[in-house]
Each structure stands twice: as structure tokens, then as C-alpha cells.
Write a structure and sequence with these properties.
The longest helix is centred in the C-terminal third of the chain and has 33 residues, at 117-149. The protein has 6 helices and no strands. By secondary structure, it is an all-alpha fold. It has helices spanning 2-14, 16-39, 49-78, 83-112, 117-149, 152-175. The radius of gyration is 17 Å and the shape is globular.
Length: 179
Amino acid sequence: MANIMKIYQRLLLKYPLSTQAVQAGTLMALGDQIAQNLVEQRKIKDLDFVRTAQFGSIGLFIAGPVTRTWYGILDKHIGSTGGTVVLKKVCCDQLLFAPAFLLVLLTVIGIYRENNLENLKMKLKSEYLDILQNNYKIWPMVQLCNFYFIPLQYQVLIVQSVALLWNTYISYRTSLGNQ
């Protein structure tokens, strides 16, 4: 296990964006599999591996890089330490980033599910606010701890680890009516 952490830390130093993109893709794909296996209780023959790959690609190409870039912007413009800094980061994260990112996430999932524009609008209208409200039940506290205790290079890992459960919820929520 110590060797894995050393390899991870080396990759994180040498390739921070790529490393965090791969970890986000892996954890998002895992979240979808948890949703399919444990929540939806699908049999192995009924698993939707395309859906899993889609979730993985969202993590790889969107969630990982965008989150890492966002945390870098917050760190650069607001600062790294201190109670006021942390509160400012959480406010920016939850009032600016979270609503926009959730909208992008749900839109990409809808596009992957081949929703036409009207279906996509209806699905967003019916799900977005409820999912955003649930976001506010979890993420402000996670981000308070993340921004206060965790160094910048590990913040995406912490968020994606917690997001494993969040992504399970998102995968399940967005799959309703698509089976």
C-alpha cells in the first residue's frame, strides 16, 4: 500500500491534471457500478457497461480536470489557509461552481442517454432543483473540511472519494425512467 501511495504522489507531482482526471474517471465509473449493482440490484447480464463508460468519461474529461482547475483558481485568488479563506472558498464553490457544474453534468448525462432537446429540458426541469438541494445537504460540510484540512494537491481525491456515493446517487437518479 505504501508503494501505491508513493507512485500516486509521484504521478500527482509530475502530472497533476492527468492523474486527477484518471482518478475522477475511475471513481465516477465505480459510482455507476455501485448504483447498478447495489441500488438497482441488476444481475450481471443486465449491467449497462456503456453507461459505466459514459460516467467514467465524464470524470476523465470533465469532472477531474474542471474540479482541479477550479480548486487552483480558488487557491490562487482567495488563498490557501485561514478560516475566512475557507468560508470564501466554500461560498464560491457552492454558489458558483456547484450549480453550474451540476447543470453541465446532468446535460451531458442526458445527451449520453440520447434525450432529445425537449426531453432533456423536461428532465432538467424535473430533477435539477431537487438534486441541487440534495447537493447542499452534503457538499458544504465536505468542502469546509476539504479546504481547511487538505492540501490542494489532494483536494480532488477527497472530493472524488466522497463523490463515490454522490455519483452513485446521480447515476441512479438520472437512470430513472431510462431502463
